[in-house]
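pipeline: protein-struct stage 2 | run 1193 | ROK family protein
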Amino acid sequence: MTAAPEVVAGVDIGGTTTQVVLCTEDLDVIDRLGVPTPAAEGGAAMVGAALGALRLLLDRTPGRLLGVGVGAAGVVDAHSGRILVASDSFHDWAGFPVTATVEGALGVPAYLDNDVNAFLRGEVARGAAAGEPHVLGMTLGTGVGGALWLDGALYEGPSGAAGEIGHVPGFGDLRCTCGGRGHLETLASGRSITARYAERTGRNATARLVAEAAAGGDGDALAVYESAGAAVARAILVTVGLLDVTTFVIGGGVSRAWALLEPSIQRMLSAEPPVGGQPLRVLPARLDGDAVAVGAASRARVELDTVTHV
Ligand SMILES: [Zn+2]
């Protein structure tokens, strides 16, 4: 009889869907399951839904579970494993002890990351930037998130906010959702693509519909994506100048319109190349819906390794 293989689980608790993956020790996904996130029912229900999905996966794909990584939206304390600040759409989530709850239920170590940090961990572990030592990750979703990978590790900064390029000024003067002005998010998030298109046309359309209109030759839609791509390029140039990081991974729903975004990013980068002349790599995310969960699993993998080998 062969012993059950050792597995690591990754969980992505998103606003609408919770994605759970089971991975080998090498972070190959061997099974996955997405379930609705009961965001209105509170933290216990959300983690409960994730645990239910994980138990189902372990039933149908048996393995010896070594640990669990969780990626969650909002501001998290990656050390205590608690949610610090959550958006209004999550009921009773701020303050919730995520890792303690998972460890209590499963009896294995659990780790918590912010979802954008987990996204970048995933893309560096097994995705578009696999094996790269220095990477900036950006997620162009409802909002714009950022995360920074330096010298082969996630760089969190003293308050855990390193890499948050979405809310720095210098990108025009439009009012941002955070209350600031001229942030990257005002041009490159899904919500702002909808808003910028509505300002030009009076029509309300999701970022995806605006992308479809652009692909069909709609000049206003093209202009909105052109601005988004130019803003992303500006963020890239700031990062290159500040950190000499030259690899960029762009994910989130807006990045699915890569055929629209990439040309405008590249136009701006060619027009204003970095002073140092470094060649830049700007890559679309590769793991799609698995990125956060695989990244969370990779955090667990690294932490477990550290424990084992001390
Ligand atoms: Zn902002």
